[in-house]
Amino acid sequence: MDLFQKLKILADAAKYDASCASSGAPKRAARAGGLGSTTGAGICHAYTPDGRCVSLLKILLTNYCLFDCAYCINRRSSNVPRARFSVDDVVTLTVEFYKRNYIEGLFLSSGIIRSADYTMEQLMLVAKKLRRDHGFAGYIHLKTIPEASPWLIEQAGLWADRMSINLELPTDASLKRLAPEKDSATISAAMGQMHERIAEAREERRRFSPAGQSTQVIVGADATTDADILSASAGLYDRFKLSRVYYSAFSPIDHASALLPPSAPPLAREHRLYQADWLLRHYEFSIDEIVTTADDGMLSLDVDPKLDWALKNRGKFPVCVNTGPREMLLRVPGLGKKAVDKIISARRHTRLRAADVQRLTRAFNRAASFLVTADHHPARKLDEANLRARMTKPQQLALL
Ligand code: SF4
């Protein structure tokens, strides 16, 4: 098999790894075939910790695997075409693509071959060779094998920018049912070890996985609610200071196990989880506020979680842009942190009018129903149901 044929198989096989910004891109159906989830031979886009969008070569080292995780197209019992790169294959591809300016980094994952240690060593060697033998300064994101020896995982962290250890499923019971060869205690121990090494290196100003660690959770392969998924994420952020939790909507696979649901969850569910995760981390929302038992623990698919909360809490609005507290302005749909800070800075000098706020946020129409300005008061007292109906039809917002 030549390098291009291998690339075709192993870029396609990597499209289920959601540790990049293109995870929400269309055409991710497992049955569709073809190359990766975005265009090109496995090239996807991701955001680095400093906010830059970079192109990554996103591939698996191999899609052979000893494990038989029910939700995975690369599982042992799957009959997909298989391929395997050598360490030098991946190094060559990365360097050549980099020189041609196709990519700025590498995202490398793998099925488990021979043993967890052997696979982890191969992944680590790719990163080491790129850095040491080729002076590669681009971004490297390595998936780790939690079952591998702690020493090997630590070696990999010396060369990678970001390491990730997949949680896979949000509950221990689901993991036992769908991925019986994996073990949540082992995954937690690997995350804990990674957290300690990263913290030590930061304190000692040494280079070790400087972009931190992340994980991936598969959504919709089991009956876990959004509330439980967000609780699991909150626990990981708290205990292991993860840089990101990535949510990947389960995609039905050929010859699927009867343990799996017959269809994929709506991709909107994945998107809502990202939005809720963002509110938890950056807007001081609690899980109970975002998703309640009244909703069966599921996020609304119609509107984003911030708007959903505002609609359910109509009594707390409207907020005056000229006098309202920062924490309430941050809860106004359509106002982000930057816009709120600009409002607070600007209102020291003048009483803000609607046109002023419009200049500070592109989403003024969404915010208008929840804001008072010097010359604007939400015109109609709409109840939650009416306003919700209108907010799902953006063209009607200007009328409110
Ligand atoms: S270990 Fe990874 S590659 Fe192997 S079957 Fe499980 S999820 Fe798939």
Care to describe what's here?
The chain is an alpha/beta fold and 400 residues long. The protein has 2 domains: 3-295, Aldolase class I (TIM Barrel); 305-399, no CATH class. The protein contains 15 helices and 9 strands. The chain has helices at 3-13, 87-99, 116-134, 150-159, 172-178, 184-203, 226-240, 267-282, 287-290, 305-312, 326-329, 337-346, 354-360, 364-367, 384-391, and strands at residues 43-47, 53-60, 105-109, 139-143, 162-164, 213-219, 244-249, 319-320, 371-372. The strands form 2 sheets. The chain has a 7-stranded mixed beta sheet with strand order 1-2-3-4-5-6-7. It has a two-stranded parallel ribbon with strand order 8-9. Helix 2 (87-99) packs parallel to helix 3 (116-134) and helix 3 (116-134) packs parallel to helix 4 (150-159). The longest helix is centred in the middle third of the chain and has 20 residues, at 184-203. The chain is globular and about 70 Å long. It starts with a helix and ends in a 9-residue tail after the last helix. The site of iron/sulfur cluster has 9 residues, from loops.
Labels describing this entry:
alpha/beta; binds iron/sulfur cluster; 39% helix; TIM Barrel; two-stranded parallel sheet; 2 domains; globular; 7-stranded mixed sheet; disordered C terminus; 400 residues
Counted beta strands = 9
SSE order: HEEHEHEHEHHEHEHHHEHHHHEH
Flag low-confidence runs: 21-40, 396-400
Strand order of the largest sheet: 1-2-3-4-5-6-7
β-strand amount: 5-15%
List cofactors, ions and other ligands: iron/sulfur cluster
The rounded Rg comes to: 23 Å
